[in-house]
Structures are given as C-alpha cells and as structure tokens.
Amino acid sequence: MTLEHHLPALQVVVPLLTAPLVAVLRPKDLAWAAATAASAMAFAISVTLTSMVLDGSVLRYEMGGWPAPYGIELVIDSLSALVLLLVTGSSTVALLMGRDSVARDMEPHRQPLFYAAWLTAMAGLAGIAVTGDAFNVFVFMEISSLATYVLIAGGTDRRALTSVFKYLIMGTVGATFYLIGVGFIYMMTGTLNFADMEARIADAPTRAPLLVAAGFITVGLALKAAVFPLHVWLPNAYAYAPHVVTAFIAASSTKVALYVLLRFDFLVFQGNLDGHAIQFADFMLPLAVAGVLFGSAVALYETNLKRLLGYSSIAQIGYMILGASLLDQAGVTAGVLHMFNHALAKGALFLALVLMARRLAGFDLLQIAGIGRRMPWTTAAFLLAAASLIGIPGTAGFVSKWYLVSAAFAQGAVGIALVVVIVASSLMALAYLWRVLEPAYFGTPLETEGNDAPTPLWPLLVLWVAALANVYFGLFPQLPVTLANQAAGALLGIPATGVFP
Amino acid sequence: MLELLGHLHYWVFAILLMTGFYALIAKHNLIKKLLGLAIFQSAVFLLYITMAEIEGGTAPIIQNGVADQIYSNPLPQVLILTAIVVGISTTALGLAIVVRIREAYDSIEDNEIRRMDRRS
Q: How many angstroms from the chain centroid is the CA of residue A435?
C-alpha cells in the first residue's frame, strides 16, 4: 500500500481535516495560508489522479478495506478526474488571489471560519466526484451545500442573506428529492453502490418505483445544477456572494451536480430501463434549448454585471445539457467538454471582478464605466475570458462549441434547428458582453469611488494564469477532449476509442 | 381497502411530504417555510425507516439456539441517522440565516422583504 494508492481518499480527507484546523488558526493570514496550501495539495492530488486515469483506466478504492458493494467504494474515472480538476483548481486559484478581497469584506475574526467553510465546501464537492456510492453522494452534497450557504451569506450586501435563504430552501428540496429517489432504488435493488445498482436494477420485480426514482433524482439534481426552469436561486446567489466565492462556485458547484445527474441517468437508468434514454432526451432537450435562449435573453437586459454573468451561466448549463441529451458519443463529449471550458471562462471572468471590486462601488453597468482605462490589465484578462465565453476561435470556448455544433449537425433536421439556437445564443453572448465591454473601455468614469491604489502584482498574475488557461486549452485541447471523450464512452457504455484528434 | 391500509406508511409519507412542500412554497413567514422544510425532510426519514421493517422481523442480533428468525434490515436506519443529522444542521443554519435577516431587514415576512429589496 503506497501513498499513491490512497490518493482517492486523500483527495477528500486532506481538505476535510484541514478545515477544523483552519477554523482555530490565528492570525487570519495563517488561516488563509493553511487553507490555500490544503487546496493546492488537493489540486496536486487531482492532477496526479488525472494522470493515472488518462489512459482510460478506472481507479477503485475500498474505504476502510471493506469490499464493495458492502463498503463504500471510491471510483475515479475520466469524468470524475475532470470534475476534480475543476473543483480543486478553481478553489486554489480563487484562494490564491482572494486574500485581500476577503480581508476587505469581512471582520478579521470571521476570516478563519470563512476559510474553514471554504475547505469544507471543496471537500464536499470533491467527495461527490470521487465516491461510487449513491448515499455517500447525498452526504457530500449536503456537506458542500451547507458550507456553500455559509460562504454566500458572507456577502456584504444584505440581499446576500435573502438569496442564500432561497438557495437553502431550493437546494435542500433538490437534495431531498435525490434522497427519495435513492430510497426507492434501494428498496428495489438492495444496494447503494453505483456499479452494483447498474448490474441489479434490471432484475427489479417491478419498474414503477424505478421510474418514480428516476423522476425524483433527475429533478432533484437538475435543481442543484440550475437547469432551466429550476434556476431561480442562481442569479442572486452569484450576485451577492463575496466575489471570490462567486468565482469558486460558478466554476464548480453546478458542474458537480451535473456530474451526478449524468452518472445516474446514463449509467444506472439508461442501460436498464427501456425507453429511459429517449425520455431523458425528450425531457431535457427542450429545457436545454429554453435555458440557452432564456439565459442569454435575460442577460441582454440585466444591468448588474454579476447577475448578468449568472444568467449567462444558466444559458451555458443549457449547452451542457443539450450536448448530453443528444445521447451519442459526440454530443456527450461536447457536453462534458463544455463543463470544463465554461468553468475556465466563467471562473476567469469572476476572478477579474474580484480585482475590479477594489476600485468600484458596485457592479452596475453604469458603475463600471471607464474601468478599462483605470485597470487595463485586469480588463484585458476579462476581455480574454469573455472571448472564450462567446467562443472566439483560439479560445477554449470555441473548442467545445465546435464539438457541440458538429454533434448537433449529425442529428439531421432537429440538429440544424439546434445549431441555429447555439449560434443565436452565441451572438446574444457577444451582445451582452459588449454591453459590459463598451462602457468599460469607452465610458467616462463616474466620480472615482473606492481606492485608486495600483493593482497588486500577485493577484493580477494569478488572474492572468486563469485567463491564459482559456487560450492554452483553446490551442491545445488534448487533455480535456481526451477526458471528455473517455467519459462519454463510459457513460454511453462504449469503450473509448483512444485519443481524439 | 386492505390494499390501501397495507400501504399506510406510504400514505403517511406522501401526505407529510406534500404538507411540508406546501408550507415551504405557500407560507410567507421564513420560519414557517423552514418548518415546512423540516416536515418535508421528516417524511423522507419515515420512508427510509419504514422500508426496513419486515412483518415479524426483529433486531438483527444473532442468538444461540434461535433459527429461522427474520431480521429487519438495519442499514436504512443507519443511513437515515446520517440524514437526520444533515436535516438538523440545515434547519439550524436556516434559522441562523433568519436571525441575520431579521437583524438586516427587521422582518421575517418574505413579501415585505421583497418589497424592501425592490425599493433599494
């Protein structure tokens, strides 16, 4: 038993055990350093795990030495590796540049607790990605959700409290729906292990409880993933959370919920329930299209920059669902790939806002006027990430949209309509981001509010790493494409066909 | 009729679930919403606890000299113990947020709060 063998468990254990330590560490900067170190270590573990599954293999780890399906099994495959990279990577980057922002928004004695909640949220999200046990997913989901509510409630605006209350109610309903679904499956199969469930579900004596379970689980997770029309908690939660928290959760939490949704629907249900695949597609595809159009259209009229980006996320989640509901290798690859690329783009956009918040009184589109001249480097990074969100060639966003459009084209007449939707929404993205960039670069600043000290170099460097990652993965998309392709193969039950071009 | 009575625990589950769901949607008072959420979750606890029960089943303890004993499944109860802890934490956190909302808005009625937010 080498250390390497225990990495799947350490992925969760390291942040989870550091969290209580961070809560009692003083002064606040030491707490920040410990949290960042734990997050960076978790990221290093994710990178190592990714390199171990990149050849298409699956890592299995028996928790406490109890063999599956009796014990809890941790399973790392390409899809979980991709999600782990997003969760730990976005957390590390946001923490690295977030210290000043947190210090401005929060009293010193609250900061260690804030960082402890942060690590707990990250541990929960990573836990969902590593575990192979359906009930374990519920527990981790609630750990991460409760910690995320605490993080969002740390926002300075009092509307953070009302938005987090709404999120708490809706998030708990989503998780409870999931729990009901798991209960019904447990009644019919007597197992909670995903792999075991997949093998036994076809032998269930009656199908009705399984269909009910599929409904509860799909709706519950769609609520957590903010799939239109279950998105209402998202824009305000993003808008009033502390800026660093927005960067972290925008890049990770909805993707993790989507990950569980894909796992459950594809692995457990679609292979074993007749007609479930078609039902999934018929149910999800219209929602995805509606979400894509609705999110982009509302973003066109939204006047608060953070809410605008929140509505844009709802549209982008639509793209991911759209890809998945095409139900073929190309479509699911595109959906999973877009999870990765959207996290890169939206993460970098919100990180740019973390720095902009130093100089701005608020994120109303009138208030950001002239920021491009006051903070040229920060705004340039924002511009780069915005290009990726729109899908300009040479950026990561282009790669996944390309995959999505080619997957849609292969669907015949419906596909053409989908391509029209994707192109229309991309044009709307161009328009709503122009509404941000135009005042940012050409507007006259209002009275200079906030401090006008020069932007510190270190957070700016971190921001640029995040922004340039969009270009890097736009020019060299092999890593996410390989992972997404293998993940799609595993979800659809087709053996992976090696590295995609 | 017997069929309906035989599924009594499912009826209790469904009625409790919908009672809680109704309260958390329809009530304006934030504390009542949280109570609705607690009822909603309790319904699921009952679903899990009753699913393990077998007629004539006892606690799963192996005794000497007792053969052919039917045991109830202990696992769902263990699972739901965890879920109860999660539920209590959620309620506690929700109440803590309501306290902060009361401090910030001086109200716990969500229609009044929404009106105040719209004005600002």
A: 25
- pLDDT confidence bin for B41, thresholds 50/70/90: very high
pLDDT in tens, A248-269: 999 999 999 999 999 888 888 8
Contacts with B54 from chain A: Cβ below 8 Å: none
Q: Is A180 on the interface with B (CB under 8 A)?
A: yes
| Nearest-CA distance B63 → chain A (Å) | 23
> Does A142 sit within 8 Å of B86, measured CB to CB?
yes
Nearest to A63 by CA among A193, A181, A201, A200: A193
Element (H, E) at A25: none
Which residue from A138, A158, A168 is facing B93, i.e. has the nearest CB?
A168
* Average pLDDT of span A451-460: 80
Which member of A165, A169, A176 has the closest CB to residue B101?
Answer: A165
A176:B41 CB<8 A: yes
Of A240, A373, A241, A228, which Cα lies nearest the Cα of A311?
A: A228
What is the reported pLDDT for A498? Answer: 45
Angstroms from A320 CA to nearest CA on chain B? 29
Indicate the residue type of A299. Answer: A
B30 at the A interface (CB within 8 A)? Answer: yes
Q: Which of residues 53-72 of B touch A (CB under 8 A)?
A: none
Nearest to B105 among A135, A158, A168 (CB): A158
Best of B19, B42, B79, B114 to mutate (most A CBs within 10 Å, chain A):
B79
Distance CA A417, CA A413 (A): 7
Count of CB pairs separated by less than 8 Å, A with B: 71
Max Cα–Cα distance, chain A, nearest Å: 71
The pLDDT of residue A250? 93
- The pLDDT, as a whole number, for residue B2 is 64
The whole-angstrom separation of Cα A288 and Cα A295 is 10
Q: What is the full DSSP assignment across A181-249?
A: HHHHHHHHHS--BHHHHHHHGGG-S-SHHHHHHHHHHHHHHHHHTT-TTS-TTHHHHHHHS-HHHHHHH
Instruction: Specify the DSSP element, H or E, that contains A59.
Output: strand A59-62
Give the CA-trace dihedral at A192, A46, A255, A489, to 10 degrees: -70
Encode pLDDT of A315-349 as tens digits.
Answer: 999 999 999 998 889 999 999 999 999 999 999 99
Cis upstream peptide for A27 (omega within 30°)? yes
Q: Which residue has the tokens 């600002």?
A: B120
Which pLDDT score is estimated for A452?
66
Closest-CA residue of A relative to B112 is A162
Mean pLDDT in chain A?
90
CA distances to A210, A246, A277, B98, B100 from A229, rounded to whole Å, are 24, 21, 21, 26, 29
Provide ipTM, 2 decimals. Answer: 0.94
